[in-house]
Amino acid sequence: MLPDEYQEKNEPEFTNKVATTFTSHEAPDGSVLLRGPCPRCGHVTEHLISAGVLRRASRLWSRRADRELPPDEDEDERMCCYCDGEHSGQPDGYRGCGAFWSLKVDRT
């Protein structure tokens, strides 16, 4: 399928692309806005990670560090394309091309 067609899809390289192309901006309340080109369609998309999610992740990491446990998959922030581009086959009321991926939340 072409990137201009809607398709719910996750590819391993989506995460790598997002990790190198998105920028992050921290708001005064501690939330973080991630912004960049969708790894599938290339349109600009944004994802807000609330301060509460970041605080919870920090507490989990602290507890794991104390016990020297590896991080688990629950710490991933799931994201998807929310671009305003038009994609054929896009369901009514949906935004984006259907691409999705996960990133580890890291405040360092």
Automatic annotation (TrEMBL):
This protein's source sits in the domain of life called Bacteria
**What name has this protein been given in UniProt?**
Uncharacterized protein
Phylogenetic classification of the source organism: Bacteria, Bacillati, Actinomycetota, Actinomycetes, Pseudonocardiales
